[in-house]
Design a protein that fits this description.
The complex is a heterodimer.
Chain A lengths: L2 E5 L2 E5 L4 E8 L5 E7 L5 E7 L5 E3 L5 E5 L4 E6 L8 E8 L8 E2 L3 E6 L1
Parallel strand pairs in A: 2-11
Antiparallel strand pairs in A: 1-3, 3-8, 4-5, 4-9, 6-7, 7-8, 9-10, 9-11
Chain B lengths: L4 E3 L2 E4 L5 E6 L6 E7 L6 E7 L2 E5 L6 E5 L4 E6 L8 E8 L10 E2 L3 E5 L1
Parallel strand pairs in B: 2-11
Antiparallel strand pairs in B: 1-3, 3-8, 4-5, 4-9, 5-6, 7-8, 9-10, 9-11
Classes of the chains: A mainly beta, B mainly beta.
Chain lengths: 114, 115
């Protein structure tokens, strides 16, 4: 079975500072990995996904994530936080068939300090 | 705007009742998945439909059932509602069932409250 663990249920960063949200995965096969963002009272929006094409994945809104097999990690970063980045972020994994039957982490709430 | 819509937005039911939630996918999207997101949790995969056939199921009991229609709409039915069924229910659609580079798009969800 596959799973993801998000370290830190709440993260606060100052506006303009680096954003780092951590995700570690467990999978017996090469995984497909995803980061989603959820704004209050809304559905999920895909930020980026890893499908084994490149280890550094660039997404929308200036976010990127690096797949590190040796560390079983897929951390999400953004060089400079913006107030509009305040939201809930979910890491997810699916099997290597790419059918996107996703297993989500418990989420990290990102707060931006003005 | 993902092109995936869900209805109703909010719903209140009592324990033991039955409920039907609806999802309208983007035209041409043959695959729809349903997720349950309890308050403060990540979404959990309920099941997936591909071309009107169930194509995988998560750890949910049979009282959770679904239908997918040729017009790219789908339903999630829950019988004998329990208090723990209170959650945000999300549907997500994509073009195909597996592989490729197409993206899965989520709807805004239906908030179900069971009293």
């Amino acid at each position: 079975a596959q799973s993801v663990t998000q370290l830190g249920s709440h993260v606060s960063v100052s506006e303009g500072a680096l954003v780092l949200l951590r995700c570690n995965y467990s999978s017996s096969v090469p995984p497909y990995l995803f980061w989603y963002v959820q704004y209050p009272n809304q559905g999920l929006q895909l930020l980026l996904k890893y499908t084994s094409a490149a280890t550094l994945v660039k997404g929308i809104n200036g976010f990127e994530a690096e797949f590190k097999k040796s560390e079983t990690s897929f951390h999400l970063t953004k060089p400079s936080a913006h107030m509009s980045d305040a939201a809930e972020y979910f890491c997810a994994v699916s099997d290597n068939f790419g059918n996107e039957k996703l297993t989500f982490g418990t989420g990290t709430r990102l707060t931006i300090i003005p | 705007e993902t092109g995936v819509t869900q209805s109703p937005t909010h719903l209140i039911k009592t324990r033991g009742q039955q409920v039907t939630l609806r999802c309208s996918s983007q035209s041409g999207h043959n695959t729809v998945s349903w997720y349950q997101q309890a308050l403060g949790q990540g979404p959990q995969f309920i099941f997936q439909y591909y071309r009107e056939e169930e194509n995988g199921r998560g750890n949910f009991p049979p009282r959770f059932s679904g239908l997918q229609f040729p017009n790219y709409s789908s339903e999630l039915n829950v019988n004998a509602l329990e208090l723990d069924d209170s959650a945000l229910y999300l549907c997500a659609s994509r073009l195909d069932a597996g592989g490729g580079t197409d993206t899965q798009y989520f709807g805004p969800g239906t908030r179900l409250t069971v009293l």
